[in-house]
Amino acid sequence: MSALDPGPLPETPLAEWRSARRGELIRAREAMDPDVLMATRLAIDRHLERAFPDLRRGAIAFCWPYRNEYDARHLLAQARQGGAVTLMPVVVGKARPLIFRAWKPGDALARGTLGIPYPAAGDDCVPDTVLLPVVGFDGGGYRLGYGGGFFDRTLEALQARGIRPRVIGVGHELARLDTIHPQAHDRPLDYMVTERGVYARREGRFEFVG
Fold first, then answer.
1. Which of 32, 61, 68, 85 has its CB surrounded by the most CB atoms within 10 Å?
2. What's 91's domain CATH number?
3. Residue 4 within any structural domain of the chain
4. Alpha carbon of 41 to those of 34, 47, 66, 178, 194: distances in Å?
5. What phi and psi, each to the nearest 5 degrees, are found at residue 64?
6. Do residues 110 and 85 lie in contact, with contact meaning Cβ atoms separated by under 8 Å?
7. How far apart are CA 131 and CA 41, in angstroms?
8. Is residue 8 in a domain?
């Protein structure tokens, strides 16, 4: 059985099934106690610093935290002190790839349709690493997002240009699913980091590496 054929599809249409799982996982995340949420964020910070010391160099894309997602801003403040450049995604149109603009505290922000901030101005930059929040993830390394397909489309467009950033999913262990029933357009993560530790994708499956 291949990574793109993880078993029978759910009886309900896939989009409906994913929407239901998405809602369940977001509600569970939003219900987390603030102290647990903080402890989870600190644990993810530690795992990222330990497993990926090169985050203090290069260009790192991250997303402004939304609805109790992992908040990378604390970790990346330290990374910038080591010389890293931090980037944020910008939606430029429906069904179009995202672009990335450099951002640091003090730079002007605008707000998108969901109220999520993004850099108001700047050149299109290319990340070396993407810290990509997940709504859910599965053992094959596939991510359940918000349903817009922006990151899958963006990674495909970068690959067409010969660019292959390292993609590290970040999120809570409670977001793990048996499968998201990945389709041909779904792009797998290279790694996934939760409060438990680091998963690496090897031979089409996630392996827990501590």
1. 61
2. 3.40.50.10420
3. no
4. 10, 10, 14, 23, 9
5. -60, 130
6. no
7. 13
8. no
**Count of H-run helices and E-run strands, the chain:** 4, 13
- Neighbour-count burial for 175-186, b at 16+ CB within 10 Å, e otherwise: bbbebbbbeeeb
Amino acid at 210: G
Q: If you average pLDDT over residues 11-34, what whole number do you get?
A: 94
d(CA 46, CA 96): 34
pLDDT single digits (tens) 161-177: 999 999 999 999 999 99
Structure tokens at 43: 């644990």
Question: Which pLDDT belongs to residue 80?
Answer: 97
Q: What is the pLDDT of residue 6?
A: 46
Whether residue 187 is predicted with pLDDT greater than 50 in this model: the reply is yes
User: How many domains in the chain?
Assistant: 1
Residue 2 lies in a domain: no
Contacts with 17 (C-beta within 8 Å, 6 or more apart), sequence order: 9, 10, 181
Place of tokens 């850099």: 119
Q: Which amino acid is at 120?
A: A
Kindly tell me the burial class for residue 165, based on how many C-beta atoms sit within 10 Å of its own C-beta (0-12, 13-18, 19 or more).
buried
Q: What integer is the mean pLDDT of 88-93?
A: 95
